[in-house]
Amino acid sequence: MKVPGLNDSDIEDLKRQPLVAKISTASKKGNIRITPIWSWPDGDTIMMNTFEDSRLVRNLRANQKCSLLIDSKEWPYLGVHYRGTATIEGPNNDTDGIAKAFAKYMNGDIAAATEYAKTLIGWGTRVYIRFKPARRVTWDFRQ
Description:
Elements: H1 8-16, E1 20-26, E2 32-42, E3 45-51, H2 55-62, E4 65-71, E5 78-89, H3 95-102, H4 110-123, E6 126-140
Antiparallel strand pairs: 1-2, 1-4, 2-3, 3-6, 4-5, 5-6
């Protein structure tokens, strides 16, 4: 028996929710790291934003292959697990872009998201990560 999957519309709805995604990368030595991160859809890719000097960015610069999981927090569980590649992009310290992306995690409050973006930038340089899915597996326990 196989668990029912999500249709494309359900996947897009899931990606727009304020869920914490998990991205898995490998270090140069092959050690696996899972990083929780905020994400948002951008066409056929998924974007994230993090510190330029993070282990996540260092791992991706060494090896673009990664996987990304976006799943619900409560029953009935549903989610999508992607395999693909990710690239690091600028602009660095893009306050407006970060705020626009993070607002969904802050009840749509763009002013609060802007202040949070400024705080993060004050702690270090921020960069974007663009994830390009190649394969996916989905599940939907609502059915």
